[in-house]
Specification:
Distance between the termini: 82 Å
Strand content: 5-15%
Number of strands: 14
Radius of gyration: 27 Å
Largest sheet: 7 strands, parallel
Number of helices: 22
Structural class: alpha/beta
Oligomer: single chain
CATH topology of the largest domain: Rossmann fold
CATH superfamily of the largest domain: P-loop containing nucleotide triphosphate hydrolases
CATH class of the largest domain: Alpha Beta
CATH architecture of the largest domain: 3-Layer(aba) Sandwich
C-alpha cells in the first residue's frame, strides 16, 4: 500500500462494515486484513460517501490513500450496478511522482480484486509513450492515475476525455505537487474537469499554496486537520547530528557500516548524483554493498529497487534527494545566496548545464515513496531546506516503529579543506541546522549531538584515506555511465522478459559492484588489531544510542555451536600417527 497504516492512529470505535460498502469491496478489504479504519479514514470516508469535497491534512503513514480510494471505488460500483452499459472515466487521481502513481495503482488493484472487470484502472504516469497509452485510454477505464503533466498531455491530444463522465478528482500529496512545480499543469487539468466534480485534496502540510487550490472549484470542503498521532510518532524517532569535516564523513560512514553500528536497513541521502556514486565506490572498497537511487535511472529500475529494498534484499540505499538537485546545480558563486524555508524561499537563479543522462523531473525519494522498515536515515549531506529534512527523516519511525536520523554537519571553518570531497551545499550547513533545530523545537523534539570515540575511530583513518584515493573523478564518471547502461538494459528486461519469467527476478540485483579503476582487496577485511577492545560498539561514547534493531541481532547459531565444539576438542582433525591402531599380519 502507498500508505502503511500506523496502528497508533486506528480508530477502534469504527469498522469498515459500518460504511455499508459494496460486498465486493468489503470482501477485498477483509482480504487485506483491515479490521478498523485509521483516524483519517474514519473521518473522511463517511463525508466522502455523502458527496462532500474533502481537504485533509494527515501525516505520511496515516492511510490517506485508502481514505479516498474506498469512496471512489464504492461510487463507481454503485453507478455500474445502476447502469451497467455506462462508459467513461469517472475518477482522475493526480500524484506528484511516478513512484507514487505506481503505489496508488497497486492499492486500487488490491481493493478491486473482486470487481476488476467493472472498475478498471490505467496508470499513465509510466514511461510508456503516448502512442502506447492511447489505446489503453481508448477503452475508457473508470479510474486514471497520472501526474499532472502526463494528464494534461493526454487531455490536449484528445486521448483522455473528462467531460461529462468525470465524477471524482483527487489531488494527492498536494504540497509536494506545488513544490515540484506542477502548479500550472495542475490548474490546466482542473479547468478541464466538469463543474461539480467531487474533489479530494490530500496533503501532509497545509501551506498557503495548497489552501489556494480550494478556490479552483472546491465546494465548501470539509477540512480535516488530523495530527493526533504526531507526538507519539516523533517520540519513536531519535535525531542526532555529528559535526565533522568533509573527509571525516567518509571515515564515519565506513566505521558505521563496517562495524555494523546500525542494525537494520539504512537510506543514505546525498545532494548530488556524482556524490552518490562516490559514496558507493568508496564503500565497495571495503566490501560493503549498496545500490544507488537517483533521477537519471529508468523508472522501472527505480521501482524495482524500492520493491526489493522493502523485501530486505538490500540493506543500504544511497539516494539523491531531488529537493537539493537544483541548489547543487547552481553556479559556485551562488553559494552566497540564502536557502530559506519554503515560506520565504530564495533559490539560486543561475543554472549550470549538467552532463550525462536526462533526469526525470517527476522523480521523488524523500516523499511519495513507501520505504518500509527503515531503521536509520543517514543525512550524509545535510539538506538545504527545513521541509526537505522533515521529508527525509519521515522515511523512518513509521507505522509505530522506532528509528534514528543521523546528520553529518560540516562546520564553516572545516568547509573546503578537502577539495576532492567538498560538497557545495555544505557551506551553509550550520545556518540550515539552526533553522532545522528551531523547527524541531516547535514540534517538541530536539536534535542531540552524537559523540564518537575518535581515539578509536582514528585507527581506521589510513584505510579510509587509501580507499578514498582510489575513488577518482574519472572512476566516478566511468561508474555512473556503466550503471546507467546496465540499468537501461535491466529496465528493458523488467519490462519484457521478466513479466513472463518472474522467477528470474531473484537473479537481478541493483547493488552489484561497479569496480573503480583501482581495487584494493585487502580493505574488505578489518584486521583484529584495529578492532576496539569492546567490539564495534567501542567507537561510541554513548553505548545505548543509535541501535535500532528490526530483526535478529544474536550470534549465528551454527558458528556458535562450532566454537563450543572446538572448545571441547570436538571437530578437530586427529593426528594420524597418534590414532593409528592398525595391526600387522601374523
Amino acid at each position: 500500500m502507498s500508505d502503511s497504516p500506523d496502528p497508533s492512529l486506528v480508530d477502534q470505535d469504527v469498522t469498515f462494515t459500518s460504511f455499508n460498502l459494496d460486498p465486493r469491496l468489503q470482501r477485498a478489504i477483509a482480504r487485506l486484513d483491515y479490521s478498523n479504519p485509521t483516524l483519517v479514514q474514519a473521518k473522511a470516508i463517511p463525508l466522502a460517501l455523502e458527496g462532500k469535497d474533502i481537504l485533509a491534512r494527515a501525516k505520511t503513514g496515516s492511510g490517506k490513500t485508502v481514505a479516498y480510494l474506498i469512496p471512489i471505488i464504492q461510487g463507481v460500483l454503485a453507478r455500474k450496478t445502476a447502469n451497467p452499459t455506462e462508459k467513461g472515466t469517472q475518477a482522475l487521481i493526480l500524484v506528484p511522482t511516478r513512484e507514487l502513481a505506481e503505489q496508488v495503482t497497486k492499492s486500487i488493484e488490491q481493493l478491486t480484486l473482486y470487481s476488476a472487470k467493472v472498475c478498471r484502472c490505467v496508470n499513465v504516469a509510466t514511461p510508456l509513450s503516448e502512442a502506447v497509452q492511447k489505446p489503453l485510454l481508448a477503452s475508457l477505464p473508470e479510474i486514471v492515475v497520472s501526474t499532472p503533466s502526463r494528464a494534461l498531455a493526454h487531455i490536449n491530444s484528445g486521448s483522455l476525455s473528462l467531460r461529462p463522465s468525470l465524477t471524482y478528482l483527487v489531488i494527492d500529496e498536494a504540497d509536494l505537487l506545488m513544490e515540484y512545480g506542477h502548479e500550472e499543469d495542475l490548474k490546466a487539468v482542473v479547468k478541464g474537469c466538469p463543474k461539480g466534480v467531487q474533489t479530494f485534496l490530500m496533503s501532509a502540510t497545509l501551506t498557503k499554496e495548497v489552501e489556494s487550490i480550494k478556490n479552483w472549484g472546491m465546494r465548501k470542503p470539509a477540512i480535516l486537520r488530523l495530527e493526533e498521532g504526531d507526538a507519539d510518532s516523533e517520540s519513536q524517532l531519535l535525531q542526532y547530528q555529528v559535526k565533522c569535516g568533509e573527509e571525516e564523513k567518509f571515515l564515519l560512514v565506513y566505521v558505521i557500516f563496517k562495524l555494523r553500528l546500525v542494525k537494520g536497513k539504512t537510506i543514505v541521502f546525498v545532494n548530488d548524483i556524482d556524490r552518490g556514486y562516490r559514496v558507493k565506490l568508496f564503500l565497495e572498497q571495503f566490501g560493503i554493498r549498496s545500490c544507488v537511487l537517483n533521477a537519471e535511472l529508468p523508472v522501472n529500475s527505480r521501482l524495482h529497487i524500492v520493491e526489493e529494498f522493502n523485501k530486505d534484499v538490500y540493506d543500504i540505499i544511497i539516494a539523491t534527494d531531488e529537493a537539493d538537485l537544483n541548489v547543487h546545480a547552481g553556479d559556485s558563486s551562488d553559494d552566497e545566496a540564502a536557502v530559506k524555508h519554503e515560506d520565504n524561499s530564495e533559490r539560486p537563479s543561475k543554472k549550470r548545464k549538467r552532463s550525462g543522462a536526462k533526469q526525470d523531473k517527476e522523480y521523488g525519494v524523500s516523499r511519495g515513496v513507501d520505504f518500509q522498515n527503515v531503521s536509520c536515515v543517514l543525512n550524509f549531506d545535510l539538506p538545504t531546506t527545513v521541509s526537505s529534512y522533515i521529508h527525509r527523516i519521515g522515511r523512518t519511525a513509521r507505522a509505530g516503529k522506532s528509528g534514528m536520523a543521523l546528520s553529518f554537519v560540516v562546520p564553516l571553518d572545516q568547509y573546503g579543506k578537502h577539495k576532492a570531497t567538498t560538497c557545495l551545499t555544505a557551506k551553509r550547513d550550520e545556518k540550515v541546522l539552526t533553522r532545522i533545530e528551531k523547527e524541531q523545537e516547535k514540534r517538541g523534539t530536539s536534535i542531540k549531538p552524537y559523540a564518537f570515540d575518535m581515539s578509536q575511530v582514528d585507527a581506521f583513518r589510513y584505510r579510509m584515506e587509501d580507499a578514498l584515493r582510489a575513488v577518482t573523478r574519472a572512476a566516478i564518471h566511468t561508474a555512473r555511465a556503466k550503471e546507467l547502461r546496465q540499468e537501461i538494459l535491466t529496465s528493458e528486461k523488467l519490462k519484457r522478459h521478466f513479466e513472463e519469467n518472474p522467477q528470474d527476478l531473484q537473479h537481478l540485483r541493483h547493488d552489484l559492484e561497479l569496480h573503480p579503476n583501482r581495487v584494493q582487496p585487502h580493505l574488505k577485511h578489518v584486521p583484529e588489531y584495529l578492532m576496539p577492545k569492546a567490539g564495534g560498539e567501542g567507537v561510541m561514547e554513548k553505548r545505548n544510542v543509535g541501535f535500532v534493531g528490526f530483526g535478529k541481532v544474536g550470534e549465528n547459531r551454527i558458528r556458535k555451536n562450532r566454537a563450543i565444539n572446538r572448545a571441547k576438542g570436538k571437530g578437530k582433525k586427529a593426528d594420524p600417527l597418534k590414532t593409528f591402531k592398525g595391526k600387522g599380519k601374523r
